[in-house]
Amino acid sequence: MTVELSDAASAPYDPMSQAASGSGPMDQDSFGKDSFLKLLTTQMANQDPLSPSEPTEFISQLAQFTSLEQLVNVNEGLNMLAVTQTAATSAQMVSYVGKEVTFASDSLYLAEQGQAQTLSYELDSAADNVDVQVLNESGDVVRTMKLGGQAVGDQRVEFDGQDDDGNPLPAGMYTLEVSAKNEDGEVGVNTRDKAMVKGVTFKGGFPQLLLEDGRVITLNQVLSVMNGEGQSVAVSEEGDSDVDSTIAAAEQLLNDLTADGDDVFEDIIPDELSIPLELPGDNSDEALDYDAQAE
């Protein structure tokens, strides 16, 4: 009895070459461990008994598949990590809604005609001459301010919302250009802007902050986050003051009630006065307890 095998059946299966060429009896996207083992055992069962596969070839195939499977597992792990990070970033960005953010940007938005603005930027080193230009949407310079020398660090300049002729600029989007020079040449400048966060958009599959003026920024542009009152710590809706003033008011109240050692209120004043404080960010659901011991 003569057994004839085709070249494809007699040649050992190479999973790496099959994956690289994209050919094979099945789609490479659906090829997995079970498919490989089934194909391998089928090949061994139908190999030429007069010329069986060498053990080294068999071990080589297993090693190649093991490497391929590890790469697939790493890719799946990276995809899962990306999904987890996106979810965490989304939760963090949702907490920014209703707060004012300072972000890296060269844009300047005037909500109203002639609206005054505080321009903010950072100088990498001290400058002898600083010039600020405001450009309209057409790229034309509508206002130039020569500020002279400035120190290194954060700078703030009041802009009256007018052009060089003193006419109020119309509402809209403008571009801020700051040039600074010293004896060594050009000085690096980082421009900034502020706006209230209206919501979070998932444009392009990634979360981005949607500002009240319609602009969209990414999380890595955000430099600082403040609430609507310009405070970094918010209290619960029972009060509008910050943490220090709330604690001070509690201390004053307790002192008034227990003045001159009068214990008439000891039954209605707890030994521990608990003031729930709502913190922004990840600690928004936690409460801080302030202990005020009555003397």
Question: Would you write up a description of this structure?
Answer:
The chain has 295 residues and is an alpha+beta fold. It has 3 domains: 7-93, no CATH class; 101-225, Immunoglobulin-like; 233-295, no CATH class. The chain has 5 helices and 12 strands. The strands form 2 sheets. Strands 1, 3, 6, 9, 10, 11 and 12 form a 7-stranded antiparallel sheet that branches. Strands 2, 4, 5, 7 and 8 form a 5-stranded antiparallel sheet that branches. Strand 7 (172-182) and strand 8 form a beta hairpin. The protein is elongated and about 100 Å long.
* Rg, alpha carbons: 34 Å
| Continuous helix count | 5
User: According to CATH, what is the topology of the largest domain?
Assistant: Immunoglobulin-like
Strand count, sense and barrel status of the largest sheet are: 7 strands, antiparallel
| Beta strand count | 12
SSE class:
alpha+beta
CATH architecture of the largest domain: Sandwich
CA(first)-CA(last) distance = 108 Å
CATH hierarchy, class of the largest domain: Mainly Beta
Low-confidence stretches at least 5 residues in length (pLDDT < 50)?
Answer: 1-28, 230-243, 261-295
Mean pLDDT: 71
Beta content comes to 25-35%
| Approximate shape | elongated
| Strand/helix succession | HHHHEEEEEEEEEEEEH
* Tally of discrete structural domains: 3
The level of helicity is 25-40%
